[in-house]
Every structure is written in C-alpha cells, then in structure tokens.
Write a structure and sequence with these properties.
The complex is a heterodimer of chains A (308) and B (185).
Chain A (H helix, E strand, L loop, with lengths): L1 H27 L8 H11 L29 E12 L12 E13 L2 E8 L5 E11 L11 E11 L6 H5 L5 E12 L4 E12 L10 E14 L2 E10 L12 E10 L2 E8 L6 H4 L13 E11 L1
Antiparallel strand pairs in A: 1-2, 1-12, 2-3, 3-4, 4-5, 5-6, 6-7, 7-8, 8-9, 9-10, 10-11, 11-12
Chain B lengths: L1 H15 L5 E14 L4 E14 L4 E7 L4 E2 L2 H11 L7 E8 L9 E14 L2 E13 L5 E10 L18 E10 L6
Classes of the chains: A alpha+beta (308), B mainly beta (185).
Chain lengths: 308, 185
C-alpha cells in the first residue's frame, strides 16, 4: 500500500511538472521579452511591412528636354505641357529669336496606373501633327533587398500629319499621313544629382518627302541631368541619327541643352536647341539646324500636374 | 493532494486571466496634416508597425516614410525626395512610456494618458511628450489614439521660402492603432 502511494505521488509529480513545461514550450517560441530599446526596434523593423524600394525622381518630368524620359504620369495624374521654340537666334536685332514664336507643342498625358501612361499631343510645325502616344514603364530601378540597376520604358506614338498637301492624291492619302515612333528608354539614377538615359529610337514614315529617303530611320538618344540645387538641374540631350540616307547630315542631329526648374506642381524647362520640331517623329529623323553653326533657338516648356 | 489542487486552480486562474505582455500590430494608422490658407497637405500610412508592452507601459512605433500615401503623386515624390529624404532616413521611430499609473489589464478607457518618449525622424532624435486615449477591452486587446504636433524646423526639415506659405510650420500627426490580444488575428 505504501508503495502504491509513492507511485501515485510520483505520477502526480510528473503531471505537475508537465503542466509547467507545456506552457514553456508554447511560449518558448516567442522571443524572450526584450529589455533594450534596440531589441525593440529590431523587432519593430521585422514587423514593418516593407515599403517600395523603387528609385524615385530619376528625372524631374516625363521629358529630358524634347525627348521622353523614363518618368511617367502616375496613376490618375494628368500632365499638361506646353512647349515653345522661338525662331533662330540672330542677335539683338531679333531679340535672340524671341520676336517670333516658331513652334508650339501641346500635350496631355494621363497615368492609367503607375506603369501605363497615354497621351495626346498637337504640334504646330512643320506638319500640324496630332499624336497619340503610350508609355509603359516595364522595369524600375530598385534599391534594397532586390536591387535592380536600371529603369526601362517603352514609348510608342502614331503621328497624323494634318497639313494640306499638294498634289491632291497626296492630300487624300490618309495612310501616307501617318508616322510611327518606337522608343526604348533605359535610364539609371547614379546619385541624387546625376541621372543618365539612353534611348534607341525607330521612326517609320509611311510616306517620305522624297523617293530616295528611307521609310525607316533609326537614331540613338543620349541624355542626362545634373542637379545643381534642390529644385534645379542642368539637362543635356542628343539624338544621333544613324546615317542611313544621303540627306542625313551629322550637323542635323538634335542637340539640346537646358535647365529644369521645379516649383511645386510645375516644372519649367528652358533650353537651347537646334531642333525645329518638338515631337520625336520629326526631331529624331535628322531635320534640325546646325547647332555649332548657330542655328539655335531658345525654347521653353511648362508642365503642370493635375490630380484627377 | 490539497497542495496539488490549490496549485492546479492557481494555474488554471493564471491561464484564463493571461494577457500577453507584448501586443503588436503591423497595420497601425498614422496620418499627418499641414494646412495653410493656400494648400492642404495630407498623407496617410496604414502600415505602421507598433509594439505595446503591457507590463512595462511602453509603446514603440516604426513608420516607413515611403509608405505615406498622398493625394498628389508629385507631392509624394517631393516629400520623399526633397523634404524627409527617405532614401537616407527611411523611417520615423517613437519609443515612449506612460507616466500615469494605469492598469492595462483592466477593461477601461483611459483619457489623456501622458506618454514621454523620444522621436527619431529625419536623422534628429528629440524628446516628445504626447497625450493619448487608451482603451482596454474585455479580451485584453487595446486601442490607442493620439494626436500631436511636430515642428518641422526642430527636425531640420527645410522648407524653401518659395513654398513657405503653402506648408505649415507645424504638422498635425494623428496615430490610431489597435492591438489584438488574440495572437491568431
């Protein structure tokens, strides 16, 4: 009897012990309560939902100067842009070109989502061109755990040249009025200040001005910006047309130098350019003045962003 | 045997009344508002992580600045790029303890509890005292609501003279978090 009792007592002891151990097992999975602030913040960091690691503000706007940048209108944002170039700078006698407004480009660009932007534009000279455009942001430069070194966007456009043509057959040729623009935009923000972009460009013209000219013209855009203050940058952009036709001349490559000045919801761009046209269907096909022969104009654009 | 019974009862009581020492959330809501006659700037971060140490009466927050959502995309970009420099200082952190002697295991609402702590924001760490309303509900879950002001200059956030009329010197920060005592939630 005595023996039985000790056995029972032993069993009880085991049960009691296990009662202590089970909760220990359960709560042993939790980290022991941390005492120091640092441990607390380590735990908080782990708990925090990771934010976007996307590199922002590679460029101030959707253009470097004339050409498109990898930036896009974000979701439900509408960009309204007016660009002007004045006539060629002669000197004080034409007030450095400002006496005559030579060309005007108006565009609306809207972000359907953060990766897709659609746009409409109208360019005065040379062909009274209407453009429908689309820009898709395919890859974004990222930092953090899964870094990615580049941003890559596709830009495409259809230009409709609405001006009057002679002869009549040319005038009535609807398809002949269309040009197609395709660009791959690849950029990298190297630092807070420096961003560079390379933009292979292909323009297809259904009907050229002369028979000898090719329908397909390829060019390579190079551009970049350097921030010299919190809200201003100096920008440079060059479109080198690959010389595929006789009429192409080295001097006709589009070179633009300018400034971005940002104030709240506006971006102002002031620039010097040898381009007469302000849409890529034209300036990227080597029909510009000679930059170093002083065939340069002053240009500016104003961008206003609206939230819809 | 009597001892054993007593022990089991104590254990049973202990477990039914057990509330976790450390409550947590990863979906805390933090908003800020800057309002002047010219411009209203409002942003919301609903992914703020927070720990609530019931015994120690301590509360800690971590809000990633890039997780603040603005109405205007450009504002969000400027906020991150030019004002809070979120690439360099990714998060705002706060750690504080309650001054009042309150029992956070009793279901009750405590108004205007004083919390003394430190705020680390934009590379500047400053002491901060805030008032909060704390509600403890039956199951030991807790809700926390607080509003306080932050002076931008104190945290070395530079507002250019050009936009000084559009951004208020002090922004109103609102915090609302709830901590579930049910770990499965």
């Amino acid at each position: 009897m005595r023996n039985l009792k000790t056995n029972q007592a032993k069993q009880m002891k085991q049960i009691v012990l296990s009662l202590f151990i089970i909760p220990l097992l359960i709560f042993g999975q939790e980290k022991p309560p941390s005492d120091t602030d640092e441990n607390l913040f380590d735990e908080l960091d782990e708990l925090t939902t990771k934010g976007s690691s996307e590199v922002i503000a590679t460029f101030k706007s959707t253009r470097i100067i004339l050409g498109q940048s990898t930036e896009r209108a974000k979701e439900n944002q509408l960009h309204f842009r007016i660009s002007h170039v004045f006539s060629k700078i002669n000197g004080i006698d034409n007030f450095f070109g400002l006496d005559n407004l030579n060309n005007m480009h108006i565009s609306f660009e809207y972000g359907i989502n953060n990766n897709l932007q659609v746009g409409l534009a109208r360019s005065n000279k040379p062909d009274q061109t209407y453009s429908g455009t689309v820009k898709g942001s395919l890859l974004r430069q990222k930092t953090g755990e899964n870094p990615f070194p580049l941003s890559l966007s596709y830009y495409g456009g259809i230009d409709y040249k609405s001006r009057d043509y002679i002869p009549e057959a040319r005038d009535k040729n609807f398809v002949g009025r269309l040009d197609y623009i395709n660009q791959v935009l690849i950029s990298r923000k190297f630092s807070d200040k420096l961003s560079l972009q390379i933009s292979p460009t292909w323009v297809h013209r259904n009907l050229t001005d002369a028979e000898a000219q090719p329908n397909d013209i390829f060019s390579l855009g190079l551009g970049g910006r350097y921030m010299f203050s919190r809200s201003s940058s100096v920008n440079l952009e060059y479109y080198h047309t690959i010389p595929t036709f006789d009429a192409s001349k080295f001097k006709g490559n589009a070179l633009s130098v300018g400034f971005d000045i940002e104030t709240g919801g506006h971006v102002f761009q002031l620039y010097f350019t040898n381009a007469f046209a302000l849409h890529p269907g034209k300036f990227a096909v080597n029909q510009n003045g000679d930059f170093f022969g002083r065939e340069i104009s002053i240009g500016f654009s104003i961008l206003r962003e609206f939230s819809l | 045997m009597k001892n054993l019974c007593a022990l089991s009862i104590t254990l049973a009581l202990f477990y039914t009344g057990y509330s976790q020492e450390k409550l947590k959330t990863r979906t805390g809501n933090v908003t800020f508002l800057s309002e002047t006659g010219l411009e209203k700037i409002y942003a919301e971060n609903d992914q703020t992580a927070s720990l609530f140490l019931v015994e120690k009466k301590t509360i800690a927050f971590n809000a990633l600045l890039k997780s603040f959502k603005f109405e205007k995309a450009l504002m969000e970009e400027h906020f991150n790029e030019k004002y809070v420099h979120s690439d360099k200082y990714p998060a705002a952190k706060f750690l504080g303890t309650f001054e009042e002697d309150i029992d956070l295991k009793k279901p009750e609402t405590y108004k205007d509890v004083t919390i003394k702590g430190e705020m680390d924001f934009h590379g500047v760490t400053l002491p901060l005292v805030v008032k909060a309303d704390i509600t403890v509900i039956e199951d030991g879950s807790i809700t926390f609501v607080s509003k306080f002001k932050l002076n931008l200059e104190d945290y070395k956030i530079d507002v250019p003279s050009l936009v000084r009329d559009k951004i208020s010197k002090e922004v109103l920060v609102s915090v609302a978090t709830s901590y579930s005592n049910n770990p499965t939630k």
